[in-house]
Amino acid sequence: MKKHWVLLAAMFVVLFFITTVSSYADILIVCNSRVVDTTLSKNDIKDIFLGKKTKWSDKTKVHFATLNDEDVHKLFLKKYIKKTASQYRNYWKQLIFTGKGKAPKKFDSVEKMLKHIAVTDGSIGYISTRSTAILGAFSSSIQTINVK
Amino acid sequence: MKKHIFLTIIFLSYLGNAWAIEFGGVDIHGFISQGYLKSTSNNYLNAKTSEGSYDFSERGVNFSTELTDTLHLGIQIYGRDLGDIGNDDIVLDWAFADYHWKDWLGFRVGRIRLPMGLYNETRDMDMLRTNILLPQGVYQETWRDTTSAITGVGIYGEIPAGFLGSFDYSAQVGRVSIEDDGGIGKIMEDTGILVDSHFDTHHTWNTSVLWNTPVPGLRIGGSFVESGFDATAELPFGDIRTAMVQEIANSFGGLITVPDYMDTVNELLEALEQLAFGVSGVPTSLDDIDPINMVLTSENINIYTLSAEFTFGNLTIAAEYDRKRINIQPNATQLRSEVLFEMDEAFESVYPVLGAWGLGSYNDLKNIVTEELLLEAFADMGVGNLNLDMAGYYWSISYRFTDWFELGFYYTQGHQDDGDKGGGTFHESEIQAWPEAHKVAQMLDWTDEEYEDYHIQPAHHAYYKDKALSLRFDVNEYWTLKLEHHWNYGLFVAPAVKNMPTDDNIEGSVERWNMFAAKATFNF
Prior knowledge:
The complex is a heterodimer. By secondary structure, chain A is α/β, with parallel strands linked by helices.
């Protein structure tokens, strides 16, 4: 009898794991292949997308790009920036309307964002892990960032 | 005018989905707001809010470009209408060059928005906050012109502090502007003593530090501004001349009688003429004597603000405390110079006649008018040394329920004098000043009752308390609609002097009043 309970519990764990993994999309940070900093902290990523970190370690300018995909954008903001979409939008509007910042580049699709990153030195963006297949087409010009 | 505003809004709404217009490497952004205010009684900032007022709008457009990776240029022009302030005049809001040398050190040169508290830099952009009116205990609209921007140079940056988080800082030095027809100028005019004010501000410096604490979402900050100004204004009613004439009359040992608060030098001349038995050569009038110009100097305007904001998901809680200390005093040296000039005009040709009567030399006469005499005369008129110690605070809470709906509430209060929160001392001083002011009232043929009713300010003019409930609807990324209700108690920020009884409003101000506000904003 005890064996059955252990087996049942194990099945639940496995099922939970499978369903979680299958439904859970994570965020992948990607950048131009010429970017020298391939490992960043979460705080670095936050500072980049808030316009507070503007240069890579080799002094090239950081160009960051955001995605118009609501779900992916919200997931990215929640995981790295700790802001909601409206808070993030207002943050940038505050900078724009006081002359302290330039609006982030925004792309309607992953393909467009990746094309931009591929040809722009110092650029960085994010995609869903579900979109990694598209990333293959840019393997020579885009690299992924290790987040420590 | 309103037609143009709405046509502009409609035009802008057709610009499409772009959250900016980019033209030749220049980013263009803009916003336009139109609001409506309706109060149950009292008038907010002289807008006829008791009848409902549309004199509540803002608009701005900015252009910016990056010349290099580190050099950024930008400019924003702006106009607003709030009661009789602004009147849609287009002004330079900010315009500066920004050299971002390092993330921890950058330089700005030009006209820069003044960091003061959490929201001063963005106070004109309705779409960036939940509520329509910022808490007036801290962000008084009458101070907007003075505290919005500084023209000069500044440094800024973010300093990482390891496990302590990081510190955003900025420091500026330069000059702020006080518009002649801005909020402070209007308040000075509305005292009824000074007209056509003109302001020259002294050097101003400002610093602001915001600590991004290790607690996620918690920011704590402080800011400080020090400034000063010279205000040049005209004195109507010839009040200072009256004081001078009175003193001169006293010097004649009662040979002539000058009525209390005689309002022009001409009247003294008439008296002198009578004394001189119509000796030929004495002028009979000085029609073109200019009003006395006076300079009020404020060596120290100190403003400091303490701030805290906590954001947790869709919840934002904020609180701020603000203190404004101002010392204003008449410039007696300048004033004496003006008065002596007027004396030359008025008496130089008359005095030889009087000198024959053995009344002393002309210089003796001029020496009567000392700086001390003038300062005393000013104090009697209610424009002596003025020390203001204003304080205010607020706390606010807001929650975004959906992508399109946010609810907010704040409580704020402000005091004209931090040591007199209930306004009792203020009201008492009004009563004590009554005998002097009453003499002026007599000149105007007012009865005692009329004067007391119309000009002694009640205690509730010295404070302001406000509970505000705000509903914000984000139609899309570009359009925002807001509705707001205020439960007000007191009138300090209205401002009070604009709510004294008039023939059209015999009741004058009331202590408890409500106000409804609505606003629509488009931005791109």
